[in-house]
Amino acid sequence: MIDIHCHILPNIDDGSKDTDKSLEQLKIMEAGGIERVYLTSHYFRGHYQYSREEYDAKLAALQGSARNAGLGLDLQSGFEVFVQPGIITDIQEKNLCLSNSKYLLIESELNGLPGDFYSNVYPMLKAGYKPILAHAERYVSIMKKPSRARDLVDKNLYIQTNAGALLGYYGEKVRQTAWVILENGWSHFVASDDHVRGDYVALFEAHRMISERIDEHTANLLCKDFPAAIGNDDKIPYTYVYVQRPKGKRRKGILESIFG
Ligand SMILES: [Fe+2]
């Protein structure tokens, strides 16, 4: 499995505060079957703002500590970029993508996507980036009307769902929204968004539940195959679920009625 969203890189945002704790978490992840993880620290102008050099130095330090601790999972660079007017400049100057891909993890205000959200995302699309909206199920405007997630997919955004949301860690409304998004095929990734505040938010458990409730193929797409495509910057389809009409009673044609 590949985790494309977590805050395990220490001392850069509101995630891990301690290298040892990060290493503990990475050990649990590796033991559970995570092979690659993108260390997506918040990037938020005026709050979590730093140079690319500072991020890279912290990443290299953690990669070194992980190697020394005997860990084999692949630690990749990444950011969770807060959408603000003009943020495209920071994205271009600092390359705030997921590793060497054009995929870009973005977030916005949880109390509702603001009116200028898409107008701030549009320059990213125009510049060839592939934005992924983090934890879509947690935005109040999407909770009120989950089909808004589909509207965003129609506008060439990818959607990421938090594993913890599927398990009810953020409350019932978020849990229901997350499942509606998944069951309709509007989500492309399930990730942990782990902040090293307790147990690793069980991506493994989410994979098991999706296998049970939807099917194993979908669980693999969301936790393995689509995340793996980011590694080669391969194109991920916006639509991957083809709904079949339920087989019901079919009206007979006139000739069929007469001749059987
Ligand atoms: Fe996050």
Describe the structure.
- The structure is a single chain.
- By secondary structure, the chain is α/β, with parallel strands linked by helices.
- The chain has one domain: TIM Barrel.
- The chain contains eleven helices and seven strands.
- It has a seven-stranded parallel β-sheet with strand order 1-2-3-4-5-6-7.
- Helix 4 links the parallel strand 4 and strand 5.
- The mean pLDDT is 93.
- The structure holds fe (ii) ion.
Give the proportion of residues in helices. 40-55%
| Distinct bound molecules | fe (ii) ion
Main β-sheet, spatial strand arrangement: 1-2-3-4-5-6-7
CATH fold label: TIM Barrel
| Shape call | globular
Helix-strand string:
EHEHEHEHEHHEHHEHHH
Keywords:
TIM Barrel, binds fe (ii) ion, 260 residues, alpha/beta
What's a quick, concise take on this entry?
The chain is α/β, with parallel strands linked by helices.
Write the layout of secondary structure elements.
Layout: E1 2-3, H1 19-32, E2 36-43, H2 52-68, E3 74-82, H3 87-94, E4 103-107, H4 117-126, E5 130-133, H5 140-144, H6 147-154, E6 158-162, H7 163-166, H8 172-183, E7 189-191, H9 203-213, H10 216-231, H11 254-259
Parallel strand pairs: 1-2, 2-3, 3-4, 4-5, 5-6, 6-7
Bound molecules: fe (ii) ion (FE2).
Residues 5, 7, 80, 134, 193 line the site of fe (ii) ion.
